[in-house]
From TrEMBL, chain A:
Keywords: ATP-binding, Ligase, Nucleotide-binding, Protein biosynthesis. This is Glutamyl-tRNA(Gln) amidotransferase subunit E. Its EC number is 6.3.5.-. Residues 366-386 are annotated as: Disordered. SMART domains: GatB_Yqey (SM00845). Belongs to the GatB/GatE family. GatE subfamily.
TrEMBL record, chain B:
The keyword Protein biosynthesis applies. Residues 79-271 form the L-asparaginase N-terminal domain. It catalyses: L-glutamyl-tRNA(Gln) + L-glutamine + ATP + H2O = L-glutaminyl-tRNA(Gln) + L-glutamate + ADP + phosphate + H(+). It comes from Halapricum hydrolyticum. It holds the Pfam family Asparaginase_C. This is Glutamyl-tRNA(Gln) amidotransferase subunit D. Its EC number is 6.3.5.-.
Length: 638, 414
């Protein structure tokens, strides 16, 4: 994209919503571990339906209603690591203390004030991702602030909530979910709409991410943090972009959304000028009776129909690009897909896909859609005018009707400009329509869980990752790059633990950042290594029980045989260090064997003989020790 | 400042805008923020400013504006929905913050739109109580109401009831009523105010069971953890065996009488049942309420029996084959000599009482204890209440099957 926008002029307003899983021992409302499982490991299956209910204030949420229009059956996979609470067959236990403590710690890092009394709420979610039909969530703190280069960004609220169940796959009758993830504590952090540029959005997200990780109590890895971005421009509308997986994409996604809103506003202005309008959908199956289009043909042979809507004055605009490789027509198509259709065709892209020129003409005729008339055409005296577009959906009768209605509705909103909505972030930093914006009415009290009065007085302030980077350099003499790598890395808590236990910081840093990576690359199953394995192995090296050179072999042995303790592995693999007298014996033997060379070259023979000594000791002796002994023995003789 | 007012609250450097909720306590104001979240704010530290009075009608927000559309279809049977309260018809109470029953039968019909088109409905409310508050006189009201509904032409009756004591009420109906139509109790284990409530499926399956051919008093609840099948339990042999699971109810000592498959609404039976129209409608509501159920466990003081010496009947829930500590026997003997009827059941729940095997049992029989066969202790209590008020020979009536509460043959089924 080459366009440069002046975000101030456009009135860009953005806010972030960051969801981060916590790494607590147990789930938020039961004593199950916060451990993810493979679907094959499931031990039970259940099927359930959800029925929408009135919320506390008697209103039904629009987003929830749309979700519920299709009655669906949900299947849940349960495990030996889940219980009746996840199955919605036991009331939730009290709020997990550890999770509340971590939430308060995060509140403190974000400079927030905890509320006096936290009230667990039920947020209506009826897509099946929560067995109860709602997500339990509670407002813990408000009114915080973080710094960015472009000024402070307010942090509006911090919620502690339960993670939803993981969607495994679509089934014939609905969706299959896995209960392992349901109930893992999650914090949701919402900023004020203080963000004014794509870069600031990214910086704010990075800052919050750093603060979260500084607690050492957040989960790491794919899917454990999700970012939503709310974006609007002055003339546009608030759009919630959900599920941005990578921090690196946040600025691009904001840029692309601004462009989309700018384009949609321009389209609306153009449509207004053209006095555009949206017609009533009609059946145009007749037009395509003998079509060669594979998509339409297959819909018709299985009893389907083709429905069309005339889009008066839309000619040329449906095909207009509003995000990289996404057109207004793509938006229409997204709405059609939400109602079960495979997509749409529209006249801006036809003839194509097997639809002929003649069929397009017949289609236009069937819905009274006029061609554009340019100024040169109008020499005959007719006024020039913009043409009409036509969108069609081919599917079973019910789906086609719902889908074309959805397309017509979306086309209506194109006349107005930008619709408020929730969109799903795509991998290429564009986005697609997901559902209407959720309303506030979807919340009612979780009466099964009593309110909690948070006690922030005992909460510790953790050292920030930025502070750790500085300290690792100053205190441990790590270089800046390695210090940052360790501090921001997943193994930071392990690093600190082993250093605390007495392991040399450089050895510890090299091990967690390079050795393990190298072993993984060599297909060693390092994921089997526990923190205890690594700590014990490093301590053995530190205390001389195992030479430096033996560490990789030791870790490999432990990874391949995780049931062994580090000491057992040393024994089994014969990795134990060699005592000084044994080293001296081997060195003396080498020196005597090469007596001539030693006499001639003196210390010059050192490097050659060092290799021979190490070979004789088969790498089991500490290099420094061998080198010291060898130097002594050469000196004796030289 | 009243619940429902829109308020602005200053508390230290924080401020909150929202609607004041009735769940506020002396210590905390509870505010519903515009985001939908509720928060509690220290009342003493809060400075409240009412911005607008009565923004929300909190009580009225529960009620629906639209009437349910109840149309009469001649081709459909008529089912009477009787509400006694309980989770199936419950909603959030803002005063206590807990879930309580507030709906009548028509509300249930509105709350469970899936019931539409399955039958023509008559609705009535007999009580609006949680089932732990159920009393024998409500059983009597309920039996009379069911009797009236059947007289008025109901082809089946569905009783919506809290699950805690459902088995007792169902047993009471089974003894009090001779019914020519199905009487089906149902309830829910997850409150009706949540999308995952089991009330929809239980109610739909109960209506289907009430349309069936089995003129029995049944309990219709989930057969397992899935929303697939409801089990039909004979009321006198059912027991709530789990505090929270959807499939808490089980038939003790046998497979359930039948089941209803939710998806295709198919009702099927595994065992013989009394067919529709077989019995003539009759009612015998009298109950002797001076009856207690006493559980013996090691160390229980026999003084509990002395405290009950003026009771008309006692059901003992003994150990094993039907035993109590030998020291109890003289107390039991005294009770019986003074005219109290004592029935022995077992806390094993599964299996038949037999007091002829060990000395303790023989001594109890000697003292005049009536063996409760394989009756559930709770069912035996209800039966003893009924027998004392209606039977000429209490001991013989207790030992005779009246409503499926006794199985003459102990047939292994698991």
């Amino acid at each position: 994209m080459t366009e440069q926008f002046d975000y101030d002029d456009l009135g860009l307003v953005a806010g972030l919503e960051i969801h981060q899983q916590l790494d607590t021992a147990t789930k938020l409302f039961c004593a199950c571990p916060t451990e993810l499982r493979e679907p094959e490991e499931s031990t039970r299956r259940l099927t359930r339906y959800l029925h929408p209910t009135r919320s506390e204030l008697g209103e039904l949420d629009e987003a929830a209603l749309e979700e519920s229009r299709v009655e669906r059956e949900f299947e849940y996979l349960a495990y030996d690591s889940t219980c009746l609470v996840e199955e919605d067959d036991e009331p939730p236990h009290r709020v997990d203390d550890e999770a509340m403590t971590v939430a308060l710690e995060i509140a403190q890092l974000l400079d927030m004030e905890p509320v006096d009394q936290v009230h667990p709420m039920r947020k209506l979610v009826i897509d099946g991702s929560n067995t109860s039909g709602f997500q339990r969530t509670m407002l813990v703190a408000g009114d915080g602030e973080i710094e960015t280069d472009e000024g402070p960004v307010g942090v509006e609220d911090l919620m502690l909530e339960e993670e939803s169940a993981q969607r495994v796959e679509e089934t014939d009758s609905g969706v299959r979910y896995s209960l392992d993830r349901l109930g893992i504590p999650l914090v949701e952090i919402g900023t004020d709409p203080d963000i004014r540029s794509p870069e600031q959005a990214r910086e704010a997200a990075e800052r919050i991410g750093m603060l979260l990780r500084s607690t050492g109590k957040v989960k790491r890895g794919l899917g454990t943090i999700r970012q939503d971005v709310n974006v609007s421009i002055a003339e546009g509308a608030r759009v919630e972009l959900k599920g941005v997986q990578s921090l690196d994409d946040i600025d691009d996604i904001v840029r692309n959304e601004v462009r989309r809103q700018v384009e949609l506003l321009e389209i609306a202005a153009e449509l207004d000028e053209r006095e555009a309008a949206v017609g009533e959908p009609r059946d145009v199956t007749d037009v395509f009776e003998d079509t060669d289009s594979g998509v339409i043909q297959s819909a018709l042979t299985s009893g389907g129909v083709v429905r069309a809507v005339r889009l008066k004055g839309f000619d040329g605009l449906v095909g207009r690009e509003i995000q990289p490789d996404r057109r207004l027509g793509t938006e229409f198509s997204d709405h059609a897909k939400r109602h079960g259709a495979g997509g749409i065709f529209h006249t801006d892209e036809l003839p194509a896909y097997g639809v002929t020129e003649a069929e397009v003409e017949a289609l236009r005729e069937a819905v009274d859609a006029r061609e554009a008339r340019s100024a040169s055409d109008s020499a005959s005296g007719d006024e020039p005018r913009a043409g009409d577009a036509v969108a069609i959906v081919a599917d079973d009768p019910e789906t086609a009707e719902l889908a074309i209605e959805a397309v017509a509705e979306r086309a209506e909103t194109a006349l107005e400009g930008v619709p408020e909505e929730t969109r799903d972030a795509n991998e290429d930093a564009t986005s697609r329509y997901l559902r209407p914006l959720p309303g506030a009415a979807r919340m009612y009290p979780e009466t099964d869980v009593p309110p909690v009065e948070p006690d922030a007085s005992e909460v510790e302030t953790p050292e920030l990752l930025t502070e750790k980077v500085d300290r690792y350099q100053a205190e441990f003499d790590l270089d800046a790059g390695l210090a940052e790598q360790v501090a921001y890395g997943e193994d930071m808590p392990l690093f600190e633990r082993v250093v605390e236990a007495g392991v040399d910081p450089t050895l510890a840093a090299d091990t967690v950042e390079s050795t393990l990576t190298a072993l993984r690359r060599d297909a060693v199953p390092v994921e089997n290594l526990t923190d205890e394995h690594i700590e014990d192995a490093l301590l053995l090296v530190e205390n001389g029980g195992v030479p430096n050179e033996g560490l990789e072999d030791l870790l490999t042995a432990l990874a391949e045989n995780p049931s062994l303790s580090a000491e057992e592995a040393v024994e089994q693999e014969d990795l134990g260090g060699v005592a000084e007298d044994e080293v001296r014996e081997a060195v003396v033997e080498v020196v005597e064997r090469n007596a001539e060379q030693v006499e001639e070259e003196g210390m010059g023979a050192f490097s050659g003989l060092m290799g021979e000594c190490m070979g004789a000791l088969r790498g089991k002796a500490d290099g420094d020790l061998v080198s010291d002994v060898l130097r002594e023995e050469i000196q004796k003789r030289a | 400042m009243q619940p429902g007012d829109r308020v602005h609250v200053d508390r230290g450097e924080q401020s909150y805008d929202g609607v004041l909720l009735p769940s506020s306590t002396d210590d905390h104001l509870v505010i519903k923020l515009d985001s939908g979240y509720n928060v509690g704010i220290d009342r003493e530290a809060a400075d409240v400013d009412v911005r607008e009075e009565d923004v929300y009608d909190i009580e009225g927000a529960q009620a629906e504006e639209s009437e349910s559309e109840i149309t009469f279809d001649e081709d459909l049977p008529t089912i009477s929905l009787i509400s006694t309260g309980g989770t199936i018809a419950s909603t959030v109470d803002y005063r206590t913050g807990a879930v309580t029953a507030q709906f009548d039968a028509e509300d249930v019909l509105r709350a469970v739109p899936e019931l539409a088109g399955l039958a023509n409905y008559r609705g009535r409310v007999v009580a609006n109580i949680l089932s732990e508050n159920m009393t024998p006189d409500v059983w009597q009201d309920l039996a009379e109401a069911i009797h009236e509904e059947i007289q008025a032409g109901a082809d089946g009756v569905v009783v919506m009831h809290g699950t805690d004591t459902m088995q007792f009420s169902a047993s009471a109906m089974a003894f009090m009523l001779e019914t020519p139509v199905p009487v089906v109790f149902t309830g829910s284990q997850r409150s009706a105010d949540r999308p995952s409530s089991d009330n929809v499926m239980n109610a739909v399956c109960a209506v289907e069971a009430a349309k069936s051919d089995a003129a029995e008093v049944m309990i219709c609840m989930h057969a397992d953890g899935s929303d697939e099948t409801c089990a039909l339990h004979r009321g006198t042999r059912a027991r709530k065996n789990h505090t929270s699971r959807r499939d808490a109810f089980e038939t003790v000592g046998a497979e359930p009488l039948g089941e209803v498959v939710y998806e295709d609404r198919e009702v099927s039976f595994r065992q013989d049942y009394r067919e529709r129209g077989e019995a003539d409608l009759a009612l015998a509501v009298d109950l002797e309420t001076e009856v207690e159920l006493v559980k013996f466990t090691p160390g229980t003081d026999p003084a509990v029996l002395e405290a009950y010496d003026d009771k008309a009947g006692i059901v003992l829930e003994g150990t094993g084959l039907g035993h109590v500590n030998t020291d109890w026997i003289e107390y039991v003997d005294d009770l019986i000599s003074d005219g109290t009827h004592v029935v022995m059941t077992s806390q094993c729940l599964e299996g038949r009482v037999c007091d002829r095997v060990y000395d303790t049992g023989r001594d109890l029989l000697e003292a005049g204890v009536i063996e409760g066969e394989d009756m559930l202790p709770g069912t035996a209590k209800v039966k003893l209440m009924w027998a004392l008020a209606n039977a000429e020979d209490v001991a013989e009536t207790i030992g005779t099957e009246l409503a499926g509460e006794i199985q003459d043959r102990s047939v292994p089924w698991t």
